[in-house]
Amino acid sequence: MDLRTFYNTYLTYVHLDKVGESLSQLEKIVEEKIEEASSDDYLTLLGDSLRIEEIELIKRYSNALTGDNLIKMPFNPEENPFLIYNHHLLYIGDGMAVMHEEVIDGILRNFGSTIYLPPLPEGITISNVNLNNAEYTTTVNLLDYPIIEFYDLLLTEDHMNLVAENLDLDLDEYQTRPQIINAISKRLVNTSYMEEKLKLFEPEEVARFSDKISRGEVLFTEEEGMWDTFLATGIVMPYLPHAAILPLVLFHFFREEIFN
């Protein structure tokens, strides 16, 4: 979904009315939004105005794509006034809002040098993947997520069903997405189950995975070889167009419980 379609779809009279604008101004506003997204000067100015809560929101959800270049995140008018007032964070109901990936990328691109870059946890390396500041920040934040929140953020519905099936879960037993994700999370850190499951994987793929764990690597690329089985079981999750990520909880689980 391009920016024009995004704003024509999600920018409504509700958003415009809150800042004293009318629906008759929609076409002009959409053009302004498109220009702003490609203007480094504007994005720099916007970043200088954002509150720390808004920067943290963008950092935390910068890779939470729900499809069509959309990023869905919590809506809090008290913490996110500038994003809301400038029509970048658009309320969609149920306490949630959407931003366009292009806007978020622009903000992080222009403020990557001034946004605090958290250190990697001790013993972890991402040196096998070339990341810019925005990608690095999101990577470190994702590693800090609790396992259920990690999967809730990254699992699409189709992938969730595939993972559940490959982890031998009966979907008829679960009624909601949180229930399925909870079951997936428990299965992934079940030592006896995972030891037996790995015996069904290709030995070469398991050996490559074990070697990466021993080196402290948590990002996986096709250049290293295919990771189909690990992706299909949710052990590593698609994260960037060129990389998948292993959650820190599973990194410690495999290092301490499986490959020790």
Task: Tell me what you see in this structure.
- With 260 residues, this protein is an alpha+beta fold.
- It is 54% helix and 10% strand.
- It has 15 helices and 7 strands.
- The strands form 2 sheets. The chain has a 4-stranded antiparallel sheet. The protein has a 3-stranded antiparallel sheet with strand order 5-7-6, with no helix packed on it.
- α4 (40-49) crosses α7 (101-111).
- The termini are far apart.
- Ends apart, CA distance between termini: 46 Å
- Helical amount among residues, as a percent range? 40-55%
What is the radius of gyration computed over CA atoms, rounded to a whole number of angstroms? 20 Å
Helix-strand category? alpha+beta
Any idea what the shape is? elongated
Number of contiguous helices: 15
Main beta sheet: 4 strands, antiparallel
Q: Tags for this entry?
A:
10% strand, alpha+beta, 54% helix, 15 helices, 260 residues
Write the layout of secondary structure elements.
Elements: H1 3-10, H2 13-18, H3 26-37, H4 40-49, H5 52-61, E1 65-67, E2 70-74, H6 81-85, E3 90-93, E4 96-100, H7 101-111, H8 133-143, H9 147-154, H10 157-166, H11 177-188, H12 191-198, H13 203-215, E5 219-220, H14 228-232, E6 237-240, E7 243-245, H15 248-258
Antiparallel strand pairs: 1-2, 2-4, 3-4, 5-7, 6-7
